[in-house]
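pasting for ref. prot 1 ->
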Amino acid sequence: MPDLSLAELQAHLGGTIRGNPDTRVDGVASLQHAKPHQLGFFLSPKYLAQARASQAGALIVPDKLDGELPQPCLLVANAHASFARAISLLQPDPVIEPGIHPSAVLADDVIVGAEARIGAGAVIGSGAIIGARCQIGPHCVIGPGVRLGEDCLLHPRVTIQHGCILGNRIILHPGVVIGADGFGLAWDAEPKDGAWLKVPQVGRVIIEDDVEVGANTCIDRGALDDTVIETGVKLDNQIQIAHNCRIGRHTAIAACAGIAGSASVGAYCQIGGAALILGHTDICDRVIVSAATFVSKDIREAGTYTSVLPLMKHEDWKHNAAHLRRLDTLVQRIKLLEERLKEN
């Protein structure tokens, strides 16, 4: 791993040094577990006591920090983002030698860009284009006609179905499925008792630049129009994005969220874990949806939205749930009482 001084980190990250600029670090760790050769960080004054007790050799801290620390510090405007960049400097990803593994299976007309790496057991279909410096992990499957931009990283067992288009610097974690059929069904009453008829899904998935998709997340292809994931979107593990959805630029969605077909989520939104968004729903830009919230109608104004009952003991929850079931009846009774009061 690289060995950098605080002054060298400052040259990359900016900020102001407090303490010895020649202090050297070669890795990162939490305040609790950091050693004298490692870099730590914190965001909030509530961690000040923990920082003072830390063995970290140096710290990245907010530039508005009010309080002295025993360690040399780099004071920056955004400590979290600066620490993320410091990690990349001190613990870079391993260098992968380019080339095509002998066990990989590529159609004759596949185009592989310069310095790309195709891992063991990967399968790439006819007409696919793999951009320069892409890394395709073991046992990935890339369908016919897929276009993959430059500097993409596909971890093992990623599947990209036919015709999908991905931009530059895409990261797909293990088990991601891009472009499977959406859940498109039409009820056919002709057979005895009726039956579901599959609606062919003829759209694609379009993923723009700098998108990261977590493990086992599925993004379905469009039924007619495309499913679109815009620039800079970050998706956690085990998310379902159904056909014809559109996720706006730089939106972040936490694990286990479910977004039904043709829903549109605006730019710079934050969708909490296990949130559910009803189909054909529109959410405007800069909306925060709390974890486990059910979004059943359009959101047209930026802000934070929550639909979850607070945690309580089960017996209390049962009583409150019983009252909720009678809420409409109670409202009607109150209206009657109000009318009687007006009459008197």
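and prot 2 ->
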Amino acid sequence: MSDEALYRQILDNSSEVHFMLECGSGRLLYLSPAAGRRFGYTLEQAQQLANGLIKDLPARLERFAAGDQSRLRVRRELDLPHAADGRMIPVDVESVLVLNELGSAVAVTGTIRDASERYEWQQQQKKFASMLSHEFRTPLSTIDGAIQRLEMTGAHHDEATRKRYTKIQTAVDRLLAMLDEYLSPERLASIGRKRQANEISPLALLETAADQARARRANVRVEVEGMPQWLRCDPAGMRLCLDILIDNAIKYTADNTAITLIGKKATEGGIEFAVSDQGDGVPPDEIDKLFEKGYRGRNAAGIAGSGLGLYMARAVVDVHGGTLTVENFSESGKKFRIWLPIAS
């Protein structure tokens, strides 16, 4: 079998749609059988569709000829109608210019992938995020309105009571801000998929988290050793992780229990952040389940929560190429540890 026949057989049996189109005429030179199996298209039907989709091809070729190398390979997200019933199917189209010996584009080749499963997943994530935000926001709005009324009408109350009003208002404001920043449909839909490259000072990250936590727990310490000056990460994502771990430590320990935030070089390379406390440890039979979506342990009875915090924290750490684990201390207490690689 010749190399050409072998390559043709590979393309013909692929589950993805492969195509080649001539630049000058716009004629489809090849369309793999998967186009018929997945979208119901023959070569002739696909040609009619292609005529409408390549209207921007001349501009692409002109930009490439002028030196714009970004036009060599282009990825697009489209909705294509199924040839048989007309239902719209979300697809990813990736195309590459085929060049001759002079470096001029003579054809376009590429692949078309059915993105229905990814689209459905995104829609479910957005629906879930909207529901979650609504379920949290409704009681918070009720508390917010009630505490504002108490502050407005409680000028005659003693100082300790007014301080409690202020503490409640501060907590409500913080939770509403977290809803806006972290639990928007777009934010939750992005969790576990990709991160935005950025840099932040690890020391500043820990100090800021500790300062915010001290409004709820006075005894919050920061211990740092050998940390790099800058860390490449998604700063908002890492702040979310630390907020979740600190919030758990506060909720599941007594008011006088110290909480320690640790930042240091990891023994296996990379760096680690940790949140430790001397409260009760995690039951051994629950450690493997703790990061599952919606899971709440036996000690969560009577404590407000959704079982989503640790799941979201681990998802963010995962897309940084790191790990999030928990371990119990031999005497008492536990440590949640974030490990992150450092780019060389």
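DSSP finds ten helices and twelve strands in the chain.
Residues 289 and 295 are 7 Å apart (CA to CA).
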